Amino acid sequence: MKINKIYIPILLFSCLAFGMLLGNWVNFPASSSALSKKNYKNKINTLIDFIDKEYVDEVKTDSIVDLTVTHILANLDPHSVYIPSSEQSTLAENMKGDFVGIGINFYALNDTIAVVKPIENGPALKSGIQRGDRILYADNFKLFGKNIKNELIYSKLKGEKDSEVMLTIYRKSANKLLKIKVKRDVIPLKSIDAAVMLNPTTGYIKINRFAETTGKEFHNALLTLKQKGMQSLVIDVRENGGGIMEMAIQIADEVLHDKDLIVFTKNKKGAIEKTYATAGGSFEKGKVSVLLDENSASASEILAGAIQDNDRGLICGRRSFGKGLVQREMTFDDGSAVRLTIARYYTPSGRSIQKPYIKGASEAYYKESETRFESGELYEKDKIKIADSLKFKTKRGRTVYGGGGIVPDIFVPLEVTHGNESLEYILQTGIVGHFVFEQLDQHPNLFQDVSFSQFQMQLSHTNPYVTLFEHYLKNMGLNIDLSHNKAVVNRYIVAEFARQCYGENQYYQVLLKDDPVIQAVLKR
């Protein structure tokens, strides 16, 4: 549901259900072999071979196989999916937590790769690449033009560790072409966006996904915040669609007490596997809050459910997505993969938070969150549909509900006014980042030699950029009236200026200052 963000361009995939229509066969040779009804598992192979050998036109049988596998999985559940080889490597890389490349954040501006920001301590920064540089060539390969695709750009900038690439750069600030050689290196993809203190005693950790490195990143963030005096912890998994289940378990183990049940799974045979917290977590004392929204799913919900059901902390925000299915991945020789649902998971109280779905109707399943806008659920807690038959009790006897996401203990409505839900979506995408980059590109000295505190004072009250942003949206064909939401739009714009000019922690310092969910937590 998201446009690619400029800070970690990630190639997203969608699983579409393809209908397959097999009409009557006519004029085929009488000697052709019949497909055995008993040997149904060979039907697909036999059919593919038959098409490959006999079909009147040339057909790419690999594409037929892809469609067939996709169609089969689409009729199981919305989370059993086929991942083509072209997408699998990127997804696997994202879950691994690092890749080998030159280390830049970029986006295509006027069909040219514009460097938004070189990654801190990365090869590009060490080689002299600067914000605003346009990358024209990688070695002798042209990287600009209307038809250039992200996959091709990635393939030319990534490579083996310590391999070199000669970049041809146009530096707008100096109006000159430069040749810069960059040695590729391992670039971390951090899953912890920020670890900051909200006040002298409250720490905040933002998790963007659950990857292989998330547990370690979270542990290090906890230790850092404890050294700064943290007594209360806020874990933010809003907009976090999940990832590796074991990482959610590791994080829960950091805050839960010894032998607290974290989660249990049940497979088709009824086998139950329970996972408990261990002794020695880094933050077993002190208040804990978890921030959720309608896009928090899977591992995010495991973490929130474990904390809620064990009465270890309170959940704040809005009802989560509702994914309670566990997948296992199987890879093929060509690099593609299948993620197959193998079990359901349950929170410690016994809740399944998987929302209902109809087999073969994945599109309707993923659009369910849109109905929450229409029903008013995102503005009023009483509009959340709760089934009385799905009541469960926490460890201390509080009532919680299953059947479709984690319902928060403290409800906080959408910040944008009713009827402006599309603006909420826009603010969560990379559009604000693109706008800010272009402003800085046009005025490169805008905040030069300005400290962060001076920057905050300068943009704290009046900000001309809201009107400019409204015009920017209109030029994109998005006619959205911002007059009723100036304060929230201004905050996102100022935060984005802070990110691009000062850093990620500064972005969150601005963004969280007037965040209504954060305000609700701090009032606890």
Automatic annotation (TrEMBL):
InterPro entries: ClpP/crotonase-like_dom_sf, PDZ, PDZ_sf, Peptidase_S41A, Tail-specific_protease
GO terms, molecular function: endopeptidase activity; serine-type peptidase activity
Database matches in SUPFAM superfamilies: ClpP/crotonase (SSF52096), PDZ domain-like (SSF50156)
Gene Ontology cellular component terms for the protein in this record: outer membrane-bounded periplasmic space
Keywords for the protein's UniProt record, in alphabetical order: Hydrolase, Protease, Serine protease
SMART domains documented for this protein: TSPc (SM00245)
Pfam families: PDZ_2 (PF13180), Peptidase_S41 (PF03572)
Domain Tail specific protease: 175-365
Domain of life: Bacteria
Gene3D superfamilies listed in its UniProt record: 2-enoyl-CoA Hydratase, Chain A, domain 1, 2.30.42.10, 3.30.750.44
GO BP, one annotated term: signal transduction
NCBIfam families: prc (TIGR00225)
Protein family membership: Belongs to the peptidase S41A family.
Name by which UniProt lists this protein: Carboxyl-terminal processing protease
Origin species: Flavobacterium aciduliphilum
